[in-house]
Amino acid sequence: MTYTPSDIQLPYDGIIEYYPHLFSKTVSDEYFEILANEIHWEHDKIMMFGKEIITKRKVGWYGLKPYEYTYSKNTKVALPYTEVLNDLSKVVQGISDTTFNSCLLNYYHNGEEGMSYHTDNEKELKPRGTIASLSFGATRKFSFKHKVSKERIDLQLENGTLLLMKGEIQEHWMHALPKTKKVNTPRINLTFRTIID
Ligand SMILES: O=C(O)CCC(=O)C(=O)O
Ligand SMILES: [Fe+2]
């Protein structure tokens, strides 16, 4: 099966590929349930204004090896892929023509949980490596903001959507999952990544 991305693009300095309905609603709902139940979800610790904060959002970190991943001065050791993570990894690898070895998962209980502007440029990651982001559950707005021009591009990430972030994008564009009072249901996001071995 070949998949065609939508024609949504960043105007310059990086590439996205956006696949609005990679999975049907039925299949996506099944993935949501399995991931909600089987992932070892933990609250995340981040540094904010020099203080350690425990997020309401929960995270999971999985890999083909027990990779260590440090962000905001917090180190996590990857758990082994589950069967579903293995299946999803194969699907996104086929579409993106990339080999991933790890997956960061985020569980947002509702719209009051989000992620502020950042780039996925941790030193463990392969430079300019593609990142594949799968979304299940509630539709949420996802925003890109250019570091210099401040131009903003918004997408809606629906249940069963795939977003690829490619090339130099992390050097020039930040991304965020803005908080919103309009969403009362949970969302799970998976970002498949390549850690340098
Ligand atoms: O939940 C999302 O869509 C974004 C997650 C994200 O940016 C990250 O995990 O680095
Ligand atoms: Fe990110």
From TrEMBL:
GO terms for molecular function: catalytic activity, acting on DNA; demethylase activity; dioxygenase activity; hydrolase activity; metal ion binding; oxidoreductase activity, acting on paired donors, with incorporation or reduction of molecular oxygen. Keywords: Dioxygenase, DNA damage, DNA repair, Iron, Magnesium, Metal-binding, Oxidoreductase. PROSITE patterns: FE2OG_OXY (PS51471). The keyword DNA damage applies. GO terms for biological process: DNA alkylation repair. Gene3D superfamilies: Alpha-ketoglutarate-dependent dioxygenase AlkB-like. Its cofactor is Fe(2+). It comes from the Bacteria. The keyword Magnesium applies. It comes from Flammeovirga yaeyamensis. This is Alpha-ketoglutarate-dependent dioxygenase AlkB.
